[in-house]
TrEMBL record:
<dbReference type="InterPro" id="IPR002591">
    <property type="entry name" value="Phosphodiest/P_Trfase"/>
</dbReference>
<feature type="transmembrane region" description="Helical">
    <location>
        <begin position="36"/>
        <end position="55"/>
    </location>
</feature>
<feature type="compositionally biased region" description="Basic and acidic residues">
    <location>
        <begin position="680"/>
        <end position="701"/>
    </location>
</feature>
<protein>
    <submittedName>
        <fullName>Alkaline phosphatase family protein</fullName>
    </submittedName>
</protein>
<keyword id="KW-0472">Membrane</keyword>
<feature type="transmembrane region" description="Helical">
    <location>
        <begin position="126"/>
        <end position="144"/>
    </location>
</feature>
<dbReference type="Pfam" id="PF01663">
    <property type="entry name" value="Phosphodiest"/>
</dbReference>
<feature type="transmembrane region" description="Helical">
    <location>
        <begin position="94"/>
        <end position="114"/>
    </location>
</feature>
<keyword id="KW-0812">Transmembrane</keyword>
<keyword id="KW-1133">Transmembrane helix</keyword>
<dbReference type="InterPro" id="IPR017850">
    <property type="entry name" value="Alkaline_phosphatase_core_sf"/>
</dbReference>
<feature type="region of interest" description="Disordered">
    <location>
        <begin position="679"/>
        <end position="701"/>
    </location>
</feature>
<feature type="region of interest" description="Disordered">
    <location>
        <begin position="475"/>
        <end position="499"/>
    </location>
</feature>
Amino acid sequence: MAISPHEPTAVPLVRSWRAELRVLLSWRRILNRLRAVLRSALVTFVVLTVTLWLMPGVESNDIVDTLGLVAIVAGVGAVLRPLLLVGITALGGWGAMLLGVIAQVVVIVVALEIDPANRISGLPSLVVTAILAVVFAAIVDWMADSGTEDTFVREARRLMRGVRRRQSRLAGGPLLTFRRPSPGTEPGLLMVQLDGLSEPVLRWAVRAGNLPTLGHWLRSGSHTMRGWHTGLPSTTPASQAGILHGATRQIPAFRWFEKDTRKLMVTNRPRDAAVLEPRLSDGRGLLRDGGVSIGNAFSGDAAVSLLTVSHAALPGRSARGWAAFMASPYGFTRALVLGVGDVFTELHQARLQRRRNLQPRVSRSGAFLALRPASMLLRDVNVSLIAEQMARGAPAIYCDLVDYDEVAHHAGPARPESMRQLESLDRMLGVIERLAPEAARRYHLVVLSDHGQSQGATFKQRYGETLDEVVERFSGPDHADAPSTPAESEATREPHFPEPPLAPLLVVSSGNLALVYLTRYPERLDRTAIDRVYPRLVNGLVAHPGIGLVIVQTADGPVALGGSGSHRLVDGVVEGVDPLLPYGPRARHDLLRHQESVHIGDLVLISCVDPVTEEVAAFEELVGSHGGLGGWQTDAVLVHPARWPVTENELDGPDAVHRQLVEWLAMLGLRTQPPALEPFAERPDLFDDQDRPRLSRTHDG
């Protein structure tokens, strides 16, 4: 019998489809799908029952009718959600956020409109009912998960599998497959920054058992923890300029004045960050070889920048993680509802502080009430974007999670509220670990912080006046009406034009660091010139009990002045009592290096520090602050695979961390033109094939 020439092709095709059917009809897959359907139906039933019961004018709430409505909602969702996802993906940016909220409401409105029982009529009533149902659904889902991130993980896995199947099709793979993509084998590096977390706080939280994910990595030996010293200024933009670009000296503070352009620069203002990025970049940033920047101040020369301040744009159409998060009922809508709950939690926690007369404390109302849920929403978005990029196989990813830093600014770095935020970040690391098998690479995880925080009553609370007012008192007839600038995470509004005229004496504060500029003079003035213009200024500031250090340029180089003595920074000559003693053994080195920064003030001020409690007096109204010296604000942390070599005994400054991360990228084979290191292929001892992409085992080292 003749054999058709098509049979050799047809036989493998039939076998392939049989294999696909076996995967689709496996009992485990069917059971998991049935559980998901039953859970979704039960949640929808409870939500609709409660919502219809609350709505006035609803005469019938029959169980059979409600079950029918559950089926209608499921059918409408199955039809509309894919279409809405396409629309959300096409819109991108703000359009995706808006349509993401509307999508959930539209599904319920359409289902209620075609409900045979016709229990809700009129568009306003339909919309109100739908909004209530969406809110209740978010709450019930969260309660059903016992406050865990299970639904978030399921949605992220679905996103990752979709991304990988799409990439497989584009690469010539099968058009339709039910097989789950196998875990990637090529190495990748995921760097997660926990903003504002000091090494002593993290070490204490791990030892207390409050961080199960990080604690497991450290106790199992896959990872080790070490502190690193940020130096001055201890701020996110300065640290990220160093970590991502190796260019710390371009950032003298969180905000500063540039005499040549006569502009006040604020680093979390997108317009200013965009100006700064070209100054930092030499094309050799940490993420230059196809890396991804998520939620950072600067890009690190990444190929893809998402929610990066210097790029000043929301993710566009190509970021399916953004669109999927917005479209999912477990994404943006859930985060929005739980964020509102966070506002009430914040109000309760602030009231407890007042009733207990907890000191030090600051006001936690106003803009901070919006910042707290916004940071939680940003965290979930960032993890969704990380999941997408892991599925795409990005070789290196660097993401900043800001939750802890935001709360610690207003509550205090070691207060219960801040520790709860740290615990939520630990859960997010657990989410990333659970998502690792879906990734297109075998990711190794490095967790680090950019600085710590120091606690203390503010300068104004202690002395009844702001630093601006103190400077004005000692500056004679000149009035230093320096523009008031809000806390680090709040200074995002564009300035009004035209800008007010500059004061002749401008005070620019960043935590307990302040830069004072004589704006009429294009060059930086030394002590003699400042005394000539403002004879009482330097001596008055030195004598103030809230100011620990005044650094000024002299004929012998920069000198740190204190109330009872001085310290010449170049050669270490001390007269009287050394004013640097309360700031630790690194203070001279930090201050001398800071003097090399561009656009530094004519005067540099550091607030006092309590030698017993290590509390500082922030020049801003923040109970937890960073930017200067004193306390834990310069004690950052690095958690990395335990067997990876660290070439420097002490990681001193963000630039040193940058060099170390670059060496690890080169070791993994992810860096072109690497430095002289042993190639990845020749160091099999550093990577165990049994290790998951999760992390590498850990000691508390």
